[in-house]
Amino acid sequence: MYFQNFPAIYYEYEIGGKKVLRTVTDITQNIRVVSSILDSITLYDEYDIMDGETPEIISNKIYGSPLYHWIIMIANQRFNYLEDWPMTTDQLETYIKNKYGDQMYTTRYYVNSNGYIVNSTEPMATPVSNYDHEQQLNEGKRRIKIVSPNLLNRILIQFNDLI
Fold first, then answer.
1. 118 vs 83, 104, 114, 123, CA distance in Å?
2. What span, in angstroms and rounded, lies between the C-alpha atoms of 45 and 38?
């Protein structure tokens, strides 16, 4: 759905020592066009991603079709499913164990009551482990902006006109 109206270009590949000309979709226009459309929207709803939800699931829930997942991703400046989207609880556990091993509960830094990183000697300094740090980073990816379903048709029309 997202790429179907993009223009095609010719691209030269080298296959087996021979140059071959192929028609490919010109994806270079994608983000700039949609970003300019989404920049004109001033009101978004907030949404907290539940464990295991994908952009397609949220798109289906909000817009009635999984095909508009790209609107969710671009509206939130998220372009990498692996790094920009929250991991499930099981994925996060595995990731932390693999990354830190025996050091997963080692203190990474200390914070004060306002959440600012402080020296360990600061009064009321609270330790934050590697595990806690990674969990906080992951949780920070849960809140996203949702374009109102009422604006979906307007965005799609503008997108098709510009492409």
1. 28, 20, 10, 10
2. 13
pTM for the predicted model, two decimal places: 0.72
Distance CA 158, CA 161 (A): 5
Cα(75)–Cα(44) distance, rounded to whole angstroms? 9
pLDDT tens digits, 49-78: 999 999 999 999 999 999 999 889 888 888
DSSP-derived letter for residue 84 is S
Pair of tokens at residue 133: 């740090």
121-152 tens-digit pLDDT: 999 999 999 999 999 999 999 999 998 888 88
Judge whether 31 and 118 are in contact, CB under 8 Å.
no
Quickly count: other Cβ atoms within 10 Å of residue 127's Cβ: 13
Distance, CA of 155 to CA of 163 (rounded, Å): 12
Classify residue 3 by its DSSP letter: S
Task: Specify the DSSP element, H or E, that contains 58.
Answer: helix 55-63
